[in-house]
Amino acid sequence: MYPIHTDKFVNNVISLRTSIPFTQKNLHILHLLWNMRRSRSEKYPDRASFSTALSNAYAAGVGFNMNAYGPELILDIRLVYIRAALVEEEGYTDAILDLLDQVVQHPLLDAERLEESRFEVLTRLQTILENPDAAAMLKAAELAAPGTTLSIPVQGTPEGFMAVTLEDVQELWKEIHERPLSIYTVGSIEPEIEAYLNALPQAELKKQPHEILQPGEVANEIVEREVDAISLTQIYADQTEPDAGTYPALLVLNSMLGGCATNLLFQTIREKHSLCYTISSSVIRFEGALVVTAQVLPGSLEKVQELIAAQIQRLISQDYDPSLLDHAKRSLLDSLAEQQDSSRAMIEQSFLNHYLSRDISMEEFKEQIASVTADEVAQAAGRLCLRSWCAVLNPEAVEEDVEVEE
Q1: Nearby residues of 343 by Cβ (< 8 Å), 6 or more positions away
Q2: In angstroms, what is the C-alpha Rg of the chain?
Q3: What is the bridge-based pairing of β-strands 72-82 and 11-21?
Q4: What is the CATH superfamily name and number for domain 2-198?
Q5: Residue partners of 312: CB distance under 8 A and separation at least 6
Q6: Which residues contact 20 (CB under 8 A, 6 or more apart)?
Q7: Which of 223, 314, 354, 397 could make a disulfide contact with 319, Cβ separation 3.0–4.6 Å?
Q8: Domain boundaries, the chain
Q9: What is the model's pLDDT at position 397?
Q10: What pLDDT does residue 398 have?
Q11: Which of 190-204, 356-370, 373-387 has the lowest mean pLDDT?
Q12: Which of 372, 347, 230 is nearest to 300 (CA)?
């Protein structure tokens, strides 16, 4: 177990993690399994009784999350509750232990709950699929690396969810239940709860071998829909492993390009040329991918793509005000400082240190960010290689007559 001892929070947080291979089938089953477990257990077989149990424990909270880390899905069961020292009530710790045991060991997996969960998941998915920005992102990811984990839509597909059976759910739960856990806590965990956690089988999770996105030919597709703006997604291979010494430079590059409030993409394409409504960039850490997304004015798709390439070239040639680099680093450092006031972020930092087999404190990581130079940013920008783009647009939309200054 990996405890983070602190009294700065009112709540204690327990995070129990394990992993399974990231496959299409596992993804769909897990979505349904996690949804089934959110509001039911063997002892509390309906929403009302489960909610009452949480309320009786001073509004304790339960969460089931999953994230893709390259070839693995990292599963996270989380319990948040008020520290027992702040609750003057006999039996409070026992109530928390009961909830923890139900959440970890005793899910209710029956046919009725599966069908209910299937309906809930498909309803949420329909909303996602109707979003043109999401459609552009999903197609660009599929084009960038067909047949890899990057191309698997993490929200799932209707066909995938319809194919899941109760036997599938029960078998995956058995597999997960037999796996050891990596347990993280923040706060002052009570001795009885600590003893329960220590009795669970445990093992450290480690990053598995995985080939990140590599340079190659550019694939693209235009999807026609009745939309007002063009939804554009570009995916670049950043050629940077998540545990590489060059990773801090990639973070600063992303911040300068489109990740912070003052960035080249927004300043140039939105403010100077007024060719888009929104534009930003982000990093998919364990896939070695940098993503640019934008809502583009009709008729401006080609111009916007040219200007995106030009901003990357500016980073390579260091053709920008030096204050941009300082602002990007300050933005990242402020974000990291805010994480020190978040138990979730503290757990994530501790988990990443173990998962990536690194020994680095938050202060040391902040020093790495602060020391990134313009030359290192230029080198990171020089490694970017466009792999795919997708635009969702209305072919009948009126094109804007926009002059672009060089």
Answers
A1: 4, 9, 11, 13, 80, 186, 187
A2: 23
A3: antiparallel
A4: Metalloenzyme, LuxS/M16 peptidase-like (3.30.830.10)
A5: 257, 381, 384
A6: 26, 30, 72, 73, 75, 172, 175, 176, 179
A7: 314
A8: 2-198, 219-393
A9: 73
A10: 55
A11: 356-370
A12: 230
61-72 per-position pLDDT tens digit: 999 999 999 999
- Kindly state the helix (H) or strand (E) to which residue 287 belongs, with its residue range: none
Q: Please, are residues 342 and 8 in contact by the beta-carbon 8 Å criterion?
A: no
Cα separation, 167 vs 149, in Å, equals: 25
3-state class of 82 per DSSP? strand
Q: How far apart, in whole angstroms, are the C-alpha atoms of residue 318 and residue 381?
A: 10
Residue 87 is encoded by which pair of tokens? 């609750």
Q: Which pLDDT tens digit goes with each residue over 234-268?
A: 999 999 998 999 999 999 999 999 999 889 999 99
The full length of the chain comes to 406
Contact predicate 292/234, CB 8 Å: yes
Helix (H, G, I), strand (E, B) or coil at 11: strand
Question: Would the pTM of this model clear 0.70, i.e. be above it?
Answer: yes
Angle at CA 140, nearest 5°, toward 380 and 402? Answer: 85
Do the domains 2-198 and 219-393 sit in the same CATH topology, yes or no? yes
The Cα–Cα gap between 252 and 315 comes to: 11
Q: For the domain made up of 219-393, give the CATH fold.
A: Cytochrome Bc1 Complex; Chain A, domain 1 (3.30.830)
